[in-house]
Amino acid sequence: MSAPVSATICMYRLLELGDCLLVTFTAGAATSRMLIDCGSFRNSDASAARLDTITKAIAKALAGKPIDVVVGTHQHNDHLSGFVHCEEAFRKMGVEQVWLSWLDNPTDRKAQEIGKAHNNLML
Fold first, then answer.
1. 30-36, strands of its sheet edge to edge
2. pTM of the entire structure?
3. Less Cβ crowding at N or C end of the chain, within 10 Å?
4. Would you call 14 exposed, middle or buried from its count of C-beta atoms within 10 A (0-12, 13-18, 19+)?
5. First to last CA, the chain
6. Cβ-contact 6, 14 below 8 angstroms
């Protein structure tokens, strides 16, 4: 008999363009956590303060466990800038793996050409 499997999704809203999702997967007694994106379009002081509040809420939800996987879906501020603004908080939480889009692959020639053409969408 297989263990029951579930996923719980918690959406953290920036109250502007940019959100992040904490997905907690449970299979029997095993649990893993995936954070999908975390960013702000505006990157204002108010945005940075909201990102700080969100990372504190995420840390509380993790209850001392690390994030198993961080997924950065693509290179836009509203998806990734929170990892820059709150780098110390994420380092403290702990991140086991980071999954990025193929455009971030330094060995993919086409990805690098696209990145160069778009100034690598620097934050």
1. 5-13, 19-27, 30-36, 67-72, 95-100
2. 0.85
3. N
4. buried
5. 48
6. no
Q: Which of 41-50, 67-76, 97-106 has the lowest mean pLDDT?
A: 97-106
Q: What is the dihedral of CA 70, 71, 74, 75, to 10 degrees?
A: 10
* Residue 78 CB coordination number (10 Å): 21
Give the Cα separation of 86 and 11 in Å (integer).
17
Tokens of 22: 């904490």
Give per-residue pLDDT as tens, 67-98: 999 999 988 889 999 999 999 999 999 999 99
Lowest mean pLDDT among 4-13, 68-77, 103-112: 103-112
Going by pLDDT thresholds of 50, 70 and 90, the confidence category of residue 123 is very low
One-letter identity of residue 114: I
